Amino acid sequence: MAIGPQSKPSDTSPVSALDVKKKALEIKKNMAHKKTTNPKSKVNFDLSRNLIVSYDPKTAALAKPLNSQSKSSAIERANEVQASLPSELPSFVKLMLPSHVTGCFWLGLPKNFCDAHLPKDDVTVVLVDEDDQEYNTKYLDRKTGLSGGWRGFSIAHKLLAGDALVFQLIEQWKMKGLPKNFCDAHLPKDDVTVVLVDEDDQEYNTKYLDRKTGLSGGWRGFSIAHKLLAGDALVFQLIEQWKMKVYIVRASGLNEIDGALGLMNLVPCDMNSYVTEYVDSPVSEGLRFSQSVIEFKDIKGVDDFNIVVDNLVIDSEIPKHFQIKYYDLCRSQNMYLHENLLKGLNVKLAVGIILETVTIADAIRACKVTITRDDIATWDKTLMAFEEVGMKVGFLRARIGKLMGLLFESKELLEAKRTEQMKAEEEMRVIKEKLCGVREVIKNLDVEMETLKLKGQKLEPVFHEEANAPW
Questions:
Q1: Dihedral sign, Cα of residue 222, residue 226, residue 230, residue 236
Q2: What would you measure as the largest C-alpha separation in the chain, in angstroms?
Q3: Is 391 in contact with 341 (CB distance < 8 Å)?
Q4: Residue 405 backbone dihedrals phi, psi, to 5 degrees
Q5: By its UniProt entry, which SUPFAM superfamilies does this protein fall under (predicted)?
Q6: What letter would DSSP give residue 303?
Q7: Mind listing the domains of the chain with CATH numbers?
Q8: CB 335 within 8 A of CB 392
Q9: Segment 173-232, tens digit of pLDDT
Q10: DSSP code of 190?
């Protein structure tokens, strides 16, 4: 049984499931002779999936009561399963007693395990079974055990007294912390459900813990659903009481700018929103605070040019050739394009905006008449998002507008003429088909008329004979 409260441990390397399976299969082979010598034993354990050790329900039902040999057999095999698991991830073995799987369905956990690895609060702990199905349970710190949700897990897996479970902590407990001043100003002084709304308007319920000023149960699901990574930046905006809109800006690159486009809906001075990194990361050693910012008109060349965002010099985060190109852009407008970026904006986001601005400027310079409307529209949407957070890129958008006018107005006119031509050609085809039909009718009429003429020539002698016939 795997326990997965929140985020993966940062101090352990991921363990290959294949390696675990190989180890487990070796143990399974070594134990094969035990099954042969004890044919009546119906103990089932999925070592290849390194999770539950359990008795066959039919056999276990006959065990009234469980004898010590059955218990020791299940524990022995569970211990061998535990031995096959990666040692860097803590685990323990738990033998199921009647109180665990019937009646009150209360599962006490080893106190030393709880003290070392679980939080000092009542929180939601996620159990992950061998099919990767997740079950939320309520962990009670004072009682060091699982309460609400454990009954559902037990029934779903048909657990019986005498079954042995191996629990492995696959993810350490970690909650999403929120800025204390934001919580004090806008969130309640109690533990409540806070709803997170993503950019597709999908809602996720999370547990807000007032004492911790952070999000607990439900945050893990949101994080996994949106594939959040260390360094990603999130913008939280309080849109209703206990409901926050979340915009995601990826640290891995801003080519699609999916998170930044969401920022277009924010008011820059909105005090009910804040920016946070998904996982706190140390500031680069190359960053330094700026004592003062030189006015752009006093800059003589690129050597005097420093990129300062919120009193922080971020030159070390931007490659030199990008710095030169960015300086040229700023020089063309005689101002720092980034000088009005939102205060408190994530450094990585600011760097990404500057890099993407340079990239789009280069793309505009290099574009050909064969460029698609979608490509140009993407540039414009991206720059529009940057404008919403204070980047001065209006001149780039103006250039895009002119290119759109030059390129697509003539293209649209040409396309309209092509459509008109196609309609005319279709009408011509219809007329030709009608003309062919008329010609066929004329041909048939010619044949019929010729036939009638022949009949008329034969009619005269017959008519004369009939007229002169005797009375």
A1: negative
A2: 141
A3: yes
A4: -65, -45
A5: DNA-binding pseudobarrel domain
A6: G
A7: 2-169 (2.40.330.10), 176-277 (2.40.330.10), 288-407 (no CATH)
A8: yes
A9: 544 556 666 677 777 788 888 899 998 889 998 888 777 777 877 887 788 888 877 667
A10: S
User: Is 1 strand, coil or helix?
Assistant: coil
Task: Give the C-alpha separation, 5 to 50, whole Å.
Answer: 19
Mean pLDDT, the chain, rounded, equals: 75
The secondary element (H helix, E strand) that includes residue 323 is helix 320-333
The first and second tokens of residue 341, run together, are 């970026």
pLDDT, one tens digit per residue, over 320-355 is 899 999 999 999 999 999 999 988 788 888 999 999
Question: Which residues, in sequence order, are CB contacts of 64 under 8 Å at separation 6+?
Answer: none
Bridge partners of 138, per DSSP, are 124
Burial 163-186 (b: 16+ CB within 10 A, else e): bbbbbbbbbbbbbbebeeebbeeb
Radius of gyration of the chain (CA): 39
Statement: the pTM of the whole predicted model exceeds 0.70: no
Token pair for 47: 């070592």
